[in-house]
Design goal:
Elements lengths: L6 E6 L3 H16 L3 E2 L8 E6 L4 H20 L4 E5 H6 L1 H7 L5 E3 L7 H10 L4 E3 L20 E5 L1 E2 L10 H5 L3 E2 L2 H13 L4 E5 L17 H9 L6 E5 L8 H9 L6 E3 L7 H6 L6 H14 L4 E8 L6 H14 L3 E6 L17 H24 L5 E9 L6 E4 L5 E4 L9 E9 L3 E6 L2
Parallel strand pairs: 1-2, 1-3, 3-4, 4-5, 5-6, 7-10, 10-11, 12-13, 13-14, 17-19
Antiparallel strand pairs: 8-9, 15-16, 15-18, 16-17, 18-19
Helix pairs in contact: 8-9, 9-11, 12-13
The structure holds iron/sulfur cluster.
Iron/sulfur cluster binds next to α6.
């Protein structure tokens, strides 16, 4: 059944993979004749693309779905559709808790959405389909991008690492790599359409190709091949895993100017005891070895990281090791999180022994230290003339925002027609999380 000019509203939570999935949802809905709206009250279909990485975010999300009940009472014909990782993981719970939810769909069957909507309209009951993980990637590359000048390109889906705190392998499945030629062809097509920046996506891009069993396809080779597409001026990738990051990847980055000098390398903890409990497959010494190899071969490479504080059985001496490592390595930015138990993960079996007060104290100490380091590193750029790719307007003020090679955002005054173009800026001020600049000759 094809709906005419019905409006849909979409909200996205979580990581870049979810952002990409939402682009596909928007494409599929528009292809079916639906029109996107930014006002949920005006829509006939509400789609929520959920994230389940953190329990707190999931609880907030359940509160959010609860709030939609009043809208459903006001507009009984409204369809509420819940997709993404939480839908994949907790479909039965969602249907039981929120019987007014119409459709629950998983991460693997976004392309079935129009059929699920038709099914819901024909049958007077909720529809739930979390499906099997598909074997091919063809469906992934059939989509319209949100931006004309930059694109996300998944190269693999799923994860085999089973970090003890993480739900991703359970909601995205085991690692499946897209075919090497298929990725190159898609990257060439995007470049031909005017895309200048591409971000290769995967839960652990560094292990790309390991499941293809050809024995000669790996991430370094893929990155090198994509960098030969000269119309692509900026190539990024995320996320990396320190256990799989290697010298070949570093060499490819250092040899090709269109691969950005930025690596996001999640440390998670500075204590080997805690890293082992997290099932991270590396020690702090392994992490340092990779970090210093990056800095030696690419001295101006920005390194950002993720850190969890208050992991089960973490003691003060463990936390102090994290602080010491942060002081030594001076990450450009760290995304810091307070640990909370994630149901269904193996860390759930460990005693959540660190008190809430201690977690908050450690979090504050770490944040204070990292903010200081980020600000000091960012201040080094003040006075320099640097190139940004202008991405759009800042949500905070009426200024444009552009992204530097090292992934930092610069706010500046400029014209709308600069969006999608490279502009040279003089950096005039620095904050911990962004810079200010003005247009330079
Ligand atoms: S590497 Fe670990 S943290 Fe990252 S997605 Fe895989 S299991 Fe989760």
């Amino acid at each position: 059944m094809r709906a005419l000019q019905k409006k849909f509203y979409i909200e996205t939570f979580g990581c870049q993979m979810n952002v990409f999935d939402s682009e596909r949802i928007i494409y599929i809905m528009e292809k079916e004749g639906y029109v996107r709206t930014s006002d949920p009250e005006c829509s006939e279909i509400i789609l929520i693309n959920t994230c389940s990485v953190r329990e707190k975010a999931e609880n907030k999300l359940f509160g959010h779905i609860g709030n939609l009940k009043s809208l459903k009472i006001k507009k009984p014909g409204l369809l509420i559709c819940i997709g993404g990782c939480t839908a994949q993981n907790k479909s039965a719970e969602i249907i039981n808790k929120f019987p007014y939810v119409d459709i629950v769909f998983g991460t693997a069957n976004i392309n079935k959405l129009p059929d699920l909507i038709s099914e819901r309209l024909l049958k007077n009951r909720s529809v739930c389909d979390t499906g099997d993980f598909p074997e091919t990637f063809d469906y992934l590359y059939d989509f319209k991008r949100q931006y004309s000048f930059k694109a996300l390109l998944p190269i693999m889906i799923g994860c085999n690492n089973y970090c003890s705190y993480c739900i991703v392998p359970f909601v995205r499945g085991r690692e499946r790599s897209a075919g090497f030629d298929q990725i190159i062809k898609t990257a060439e097509k995007l470049a031909g359409e005017g895309v200048v920046e591409i971000t290769l996506l995967g839960q652990n891009v560094n292990s790309y190709g390991q499941d293809l069993k050809t024995g000669h396809e790996n991430f370094a080779k893929l990155l090198s091949e994509i960098s030969q597409i000269k119309a692509l001026k900026r190539i990024r990738f995320m996320t990396s895993h320190p256990g799989d990051f290697n010298e070949d990847i570093i060499d490819v980055i250092s040899e090709n100017n269109n691969i950005m000098n930025h690596v996001h390398l999640p440390l998670q903890a500075g204590s080997d005891r805690i890293l082992k409990k997290m099932n991270r497959h590396y020690t702090s010494a392994d992490f340092k070895k990779i970090y210093y190899m990056i800095k030696e071969k690419i001295p101006d490479c920005a390194v950002t990281t993720d850190i969890i504080v208050g992991f089960p059985e973490e003691k003060e001496e463990d936390f102090l090791k994290t602080l010491k490592l942060v002081k030594e390595l001076r990450f450009n930015r760290a995304f810091t999180f307070i640990y909370s138990t994630r149901k269904g993960t193996s860390a759930e079996l460990l005693e959540d022994s660190v008190s809430a007060d201690t977690k908050r104290l450690w979090f504050r100490n770490l944040l204070e230290l990292q903010n200081k380091i980020s600000l000091e590193e960012n201040m080094k750029l003040v006075g320099k003339k640097l190139k940004v790719l202008v991405e759009g307007y800042s949500l905070k003020n009426n200024q444009l925002e552009g992204r530097l090679e090292n992934n930092l955002i610069v706010n500046f005054r400029g014209d709308e027609e600069m969006i999608g173009k490279f502009i040279k800026l003089k950096i005039t001020d620095a904050k911990s999380f962004y810079l200010k600049g003005k247009i330079s000759e």
